[in-house]
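WARN no homologs supplied; continuing
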Amino acid sequence: MGGIPWHYLITPPAQGYKGVFHVKSLETGAMAKNGVLDMDSVSVEPDKAFFHTDDSGRIFHMGPSTLRVLRIRDGGHGYEIVPDFVIDAYSPCSTNTPQVDGMILTSSGRQVKKLLLDAYADPCYESLQGVDYENDLDILAVTSVSQRGDKLVGHVCFHDNQTGALLNRVELEEAWDETCDHSISVDLDTLVHIVKTPQRRYHCHVYKLDRTVGQREEKQPRQTGKRRKSARRGR
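OK structure emitted
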């Protein structure tokens, strides 16, 4: 329950499956216009929908590769759901066209082309894992996982909470094990990654965010140039 004014999210029992949500007014029980939230995507993981923890009353609707931030607006004859911004977890180099992956033989010996969906064949494919809100900095920390060779790599992208603009991206050093439960939270300049293994063992990885890294990299070429100039004078 949340929103401005108060609304609630419900999964209709008649749907028979998870991943579809209705946004309804707490006062009247009427469903908002465009209040059916459904990504309509092919995934083993159901969609997730929940209210934002800031004071905006917005709604997070997260699918396997897309995070939609929605707003409740007074439409004159009732309330309606309108998009605020969208965060897409796919990397720019991915496409959605099928790819040919060689030839295979049927039982009769006929050669046919084997097609792979790009979502599985593309090494640039990424999937969303979660989102956390840091209220002091007013940023969103969106966690995604991508395939790199034979292992999974975790990424945390920092987005502006008001516009969704990408501010920075951090790659996690530890390998991402899909058999474990993962929890990532951000508090000011501290990022905490908690991993729970199937044996109920916990591992905690703590990162400190350094805002001066880019500044040091920019200053490095100028410092190198000074050292070279000084060496020439020494000769």
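Residues 213-234 form the longest helix (22 residues).
OK
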